[in-house]
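Morning F.,

Quick status update on the modeling queue. The single chain you submitted on Monday has been processed. Sequence for confirmation:
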Amino acid sequence: MELHTYTLKSADALRRYTEEFWPRHVRTLRAYDITVRGVWIDADTDEHRVVALVDYPPGSDPTVLADRYRTSQDFDADHADFDDSLITARQTTRLKDISQSPSKSYRCATSHDLDPVLPSVSASERQR
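Structure tokens below.
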């Protein structure tokens, strides 16, 4: 599991990033075995910061999966309508469960079972 943090230049960039980019991005990443568990706006700062919790199948290499996505046409399509220069900082933190973490049972669910960003997406749309 990874925690991705993005800082954006402005409130408008933050709005576009969370309302337009991320919903599309969540759907696309599923095809690459990358599951977005949630996307949040950092409410404790005046900076325009977005935090995403991203998960990968057990035993997979997150770098390989992310590289496969980054070199795809889907990546180009996802980013076509968003100016990446509006992101002023990026940070990725790899997370490891502690032995008694409640997240161990949470991670057993499939990407189709959990969709905190798009709760109203129909089952047929999830399979796209």
